[in-house]
Amino acid sequence: MANRKRNTKPKGRINRPEVSDSPKPSSSPDTPDLSPLQWTPYARAIATVLILVYLFVVLIGPLANPIASKYFSGPIARQLAPLHRILFLGHGYRFFGPDPGPTHRLVFRGVKKDGSKFEGFFPDRRNQNPRLLYHRWFMLSETLFVEHANQANSNFLKNRQVEYEQQAARLASENRTNQLRQLKLDRQLELRYYQRASERTDFLANSVARVLLDSHQATSIELFSQERSIPFPEEVADGLKLNSEQLLLPPIKIGELDTHGYRAANLADPNTLRGSK
After folding, report:
1. pTM
2. Which residue of 39, 223, 260, 269 could cross-link 43, Cys pair, CB 3.0 to 4.6 Å?
3. Is the peptide bond before 100 cis (omega within 30 degrees of 0)?
4. Measured distance CA(68)–CA(146) in Å, rounded
């Protein structure tokens, strides 16, 4: 009787592919599987610190400008001033709110080479586009106004000199040498501030006047600062437009430029400052 081979294959078992003998990389909870775009906790911590520092520097700008805290934002802002200038972060956001106050535009009047006269102003939304360019001209007109308004006229300087001499004579008669020394130092700083303010204003106004002189092919040009007041809510409710000419005050002369050079307006005589139409 022929011997039959026994079927050694177990019933009900599914054939499986052969498994390679090469070892698989072991994974443990301590070594997470990081994708190429996923940061390590160390890199994430460094990025978080840098972002927080940057936000702190950004916030110090509006906190320190224009009214800074004497014991917090002011000292910190002075230390961060170089970084603010490099990154252009020292913005005066309080300029736009909550009470921005009246605005100021720069009016220029000149004479061209052919003898014709012209007049214009900036910022002007009709000529300065896009909005960012208009904003830059707006900041320039406001800076000119602020610098010019902060100048001291000759009458004020004379009165300050008289006050200083009287106070110095009183301290000298009372033999208060320390107070007298401090008074002289404060007076020197005050005079230096007035001088630098005047030089800064003249330099800025002269630069603007030269640009306008070249762009209009003119022989002479005058600069004026004109304020646009803010209407009352009742006036707006009655239909007064924000760009109405009624809100414009008479222009105040800053200076003029011609072939003889730039000359600042005489601050001691208010009658010479008002521009006539």
Report:
1. 0.61
2. 39
3. no
4. 18
